[in-house]
Amino acid sequence: MLDKLRNRAVSALIFLFLGSVPYLFCCPKKLDVPERLVYNVSWKFLKVGYGTLEVIGLTEFNATKAYHIHSTARSSSFFDNFFKVRDSNDSYIDAEYFRSLCFKQQIREGRYKRDKNIVFDHSNMTATNHKNEIFPIPENALDVLAALYWIREQNLTTGVSFHIPVNSGKKSFNMEVRITGKEKIKISGKKYSTIIVEPMLEDAGIFLSKGYLKIWMTDDDAHIPVKMQSEIAVGSIVAELDTEK
After folding, report:
1. Helix/strand/coil (H/E/C) assignment for every residue in 204-231
2. Across-strand partners of 44?
3. Where exactly are the structural domains of the chain?
4. Distances in Å between the alpha carbon of 87 and those of 62, 70, 104, 124, 208?
5. Left, alpha or beta for 44 (phi > 0: left; psi -120 to 50: alpha)?
6. Dihedral of the CA atoms 118, 122, 124, 126 (nearest 10)?
7. What are the two backbone dihedrals, phi and then psi, of residue 123, each rounded to the nearest 5 degrees?
8. What's the predicted TM-score (pTM) here?
9. Cα(90)–Cα(201) distance, rounded to whole angstroms?
């Protein structure tokens, strides 16, 4: 049970995003293409795996110009002996309106397997999953991975909060995002000036548990997530930037 909690948190961290400000501060500018961020993931000072966040490039999805975003989470070779994790997520984001077109997820955690494929139809405000089930979505809905990149493109100001319409399958909700402060941190000997972003999670199936996720983003136009932290029953799971390309 301990291993399962720990490793699910590892995979969840790399997926995936005061006075209230409504959704859509501004339409995000063009994403940096390509971009690849690699993270070391630790639990109680033990390295348990690594993850990636990657803007692969521009493509087309259903005749719409789209950004292809890819994330992975993997347990280390040592922890593979106890609980092997091989997770991946793919998000296709409308390059003009910055809303989700498709979200694909493949979860491989020990004996547990799950596959998800959601196609968004914004003209009818519906989405269809891999079981051909159709369900309603809010206007300009984002999947959880796309939401992170939408946050990065905003003008982040301490003390401000805003809401994002997020879809995680059959469930949609407005995710509140709080900008709670600034901090200078050091990772592997490198210093970063960061702004702290805290998404208020409402769905227990997104980042493992409801409530707490903390992201340190560079306090510049790039807003690169250099550190992410989530609290679970058995302690903190932390992902720290290792390499950037």
Report:
1. CCCCCCCECEEEEEECCCCCCEEEEEEE
2. none
3. 2-244
4. 25, 11, 11, 31, 14
5. left
6. 30
7. -65, -30
8. 0.86
9. 20
8-state DSSP, 31: P
- What pLDDT, on a 0 to 100 scale, did the predictor assign at position 6? 46
Q: How far apart are CA 30 and CA 67, in angstroms?
A: 9
pLDDT in tens, 207-236: 344 457 899 999 999 999 999 998 776 778
How far apart CA 42 and CA 242 sit, in angstroms, is 12
Amino acid at 89: N
pLDDT digits (tens, 9 = 90+) for 106-153: 999 899 999 999 999 999 999 999 999 999 999 999 999 999 999 999
Give the closest residue to 230 by CA, choosing from 21, 25, 6, 58. Answer: 6
- Both structure tokens of 40: 């070391």
Over residues 77-90, the pLDDT tens digits come to 999 999 899 999 99
Burial-class residue 190 by CB neighbours within 10 Å (0-12, 13-18, 19+): exposed
Q: Quick one: tokens of 24?
A: 């859509």
The pair of three-digit structure tokens given for residue 90, joined into one six-digit string: 């793919």
Site of tokens 């490198």: 190
Strands 134-136 and 126-128: antiparallel
Q: How high is the mean pLDDT of the chain? A: 86
Report the SS3 class of residue 100: strand
Whose tokens are 């494929």? That residue is 117
